[in-house]
Amino acid sequence: MTDQENNNNISSNPFAALFGSLADAKQFAAIQKEQLKQQSGVLTVNYLPFLSDELPASLDDSDNSVSESLDEFDYSVAEISRSFRSQQELCEQLNINHMIQRIFLITLDNSDPSLKSGNGIPSRCVYLEEMAVDLEDQDWLDMNNVEQAVFARLLLQDPGNHLINMTSSTTLNLSADRDAGESHIFCYLYSCFQRAKEEITKVPENLLPFAVQCRNLTVSNTRTVLLTPEIYVDQNIHEQLVDLMLEAIQGAHFEDVTEFLEEVIEALILDEEVRTFPEVMIPVFDILLGRIKDLELCQILLYVYLDILLYFTRQKDMAKVFVEYIQPKDPNNGQMYQKTLLGIILNISCLLKTPGIVENHGYFLNPSRSSPQEIKVQEANIHQFMAQFHEKIYQMLKNLLQLSPETKHCILSWLGNCLHANAGRTKIWANQMPEIFFQMYASDAFFLNLGAALLKLCQPFCKPRSSRLLTFNPTYCALKELNDEERKIKNVHMRGLDKETCLIPAVQEPKFPQNYNLVTENLVLTEYTLYLGFHRIFCR
Known about the structure:
Elements: H1 3-12, H2 22-47, H3 57-104, E1 106-107, E2 124-127, H4 129-135, H5 146-155, E3 163-165, H6 174-180, H7 185-202, H8 208-227, H9 237-250, H10 254-270, H11 277-292, H12 300-314, H13 316-325, H14 334-337, H15 341-346, H16 372-403, H17 405-421, H18 434-440, H19 444-458, H20 484-490, H21 518-538
Parallel strand pairs: 1-2
Antiparallel strand pairs: 2-3
Helix pairs in contact: 2-3, 3-7, 7-8, 8-10, 9-10, 9-11, 9-12, 11-13, 12-16, 13-17, 16-17, 16-19, 19-21
């Protein structure tokens, strides 16, 4: 072997890293080689005088000496190998500890910051004192104790009181204090999820599985938090979820939050032993209902909450919970539909909530004292918000119709039952006895908004010379009462139309098709909604 080849072999040997420099490694190799040569030379000299059949006794001693030297050399190599592996494992463990600290902003090490390297560690962390005491000699985090550490962090009532400096820097860092001391655990877990995602894109390949494991740990802990919120003191988990989504929409990072929620929802669906998915998510809709009912048409916050509901109507699992949640307590009472989550949205309007009562009404309070220009500006402002409002309602209905056959059937059933329960709005006494009317039926605003949204659904097939309009089947209106299963099969969700007065009485029983298309049902629903909405207004 040439010197050049020998040098290449040494430089490529992993154990060369244990020496201060490549020159030291070469020197060590040269000494070992020289010792072997000397031992081999002794063997050769001793062998030359003896070429007979019988060898001297001293030959065995030389042979044993060489063997012992080789054993010692093998032992030294093994020691170096063990030392290298030990240092490599120590380095990996240190990197894992730093990575966990960066993701979860927690630590078991409260030593003097000046003694730490400060490289790759966050400036502020929550010190888990009780866990550090339990582990005694271990002041680092690893994949065996990180789950316990995160759970301990979630149980802290005031994590801000447990913050410690991880570096010797004396610069005030408010964002580091805020992130590490986050008291809302749902928001904290979301932030950990984001930091874990960032680590996955940055860490070397040997640390990648651990970063992914930390990311999954944030999802599993969020699932636990939602399934058993009662064990976390002074934490309103569902309020935090809504607030997180609200902040994300306003801060233009809603996609990041929905990515996190998608994984949490999937984990909840897979584990429904403690609570079913609807049981977990119904409190979220309760919060939205409570907040939306107090909002006005021209409040920007209303449209942020509607964006949250738009996401829920696009997400298949949340949409199922939504259509179940909006079912009224008494389906035969028309006014009950107005009290559901979808109903309170439809009831938002610039109209007086109670006809004749102008108190707490935010529009046209003093029209006689306002100039025509001021009135026009206010009208234009209202029209702008109404257009946006009707677009949001239309998108919600469209999402539910297109998402799955199940959500389509549920929302059409809701609409059909709602119209049937409010059919009494067209009776003569409706305007003469307003006290009874408002206890039995939904408001004018409810029907005007619903009619506007349904008209938008009809737009694609209501254009001049539309071929789809010709697929409308008028026999839909002559159908007799059907049970729920027949309605689902035939796509018929309106009820009681056969009792309406016909302009042209049927001479004979029409031939009914196996089922009806969405064009037919949309047109019938829209026409009847407009009829119920405008009839009472025109007959005043």
